[in-house]
């Protein structure tokens, strides 16, 4: 049997957190939009139908929500990096990419976003 590679995409997770370094940003929660892509080998999960062999996206999403909403961040880089770290916790994750957008951060722009990615060494 061939190896089955899966990609989970958590799309447009809308949360509120403290993000930024201006006084108004430090004192008021702002909207952030998170997109995450998690790559993993799904061969065992697809054969066994066992949740323990898969990446549990519901648990992952809850972990992201809890972490983002209960912390403060000065930079998008820090927030994005910490979400990326949560996405790579499962042992069978081979790669992940996270984009965090900050709507209305700039005048005349819909949002500002930052993307970070990582890949496990083979």
From TrEMBL:
One GO cellular component term noted in the UniProt record for this chain: cytosol
Limits of the Dihydroneopterin aldolase/epimerase domain: 8-118
Gene3D superfamilies in alphabetical order: 3.30.1130.10
Coiled coil (UniProt feature): none
Record flagged with keyword Nucleus: no
Example GO BP: folic acid biosynthetic process
Record bears the keyword Lyase: yes
EC number: 4.1.2.25
One Pfam family here: FolB
Keyword tags: Folate biosynthesis, Isomerase, Lyase
Recorded catalytic activity of this chain's protein: 7,8-dihydroneopterin 3'-triphosphate = 7,8-dihydromonapterin 3'-triphosphate; 7,8-dihydroneopterin = 6-hydroxymethyl-7,8-dihydropterin + glycolaldehyde
Pathway: Cofactor biosynthesis; tetrahydrofolate biosynthesis; 2-amino-4-hydroxy-6-hydroxymethyl-7,8-dihydropteridine diphosphate from 7,8-dihydroneopterin triphosphate: step 3/4
InterPro entries the UniProt entry points to: Dihydroneopterin_aldolase, FolB_dom, GTP-CH-I_C/QueF
GO molecular function: dihydroneopterin aldolase activity; dihydroneopterin triphosphate 2'-epimerase activity
Family as reported in the entry's similarity comment: Belongs to the DHNA family.
Function: Catalyzes the conversion of 7,8-dihydroneopterin to 6-hydroxymethyl-7,8-dihydropterin.
NCBIfam families: folB, folB_dom, PRK11245.1
Protein name (record): 7,8-dihydroneopterin aldolase
Organism per entry: Marinomonas pollencensis
Upper lineage: Bacteria, Pseudomonadati, Pseudomonadota, Gammaproteobacteria, Oceanospirillales
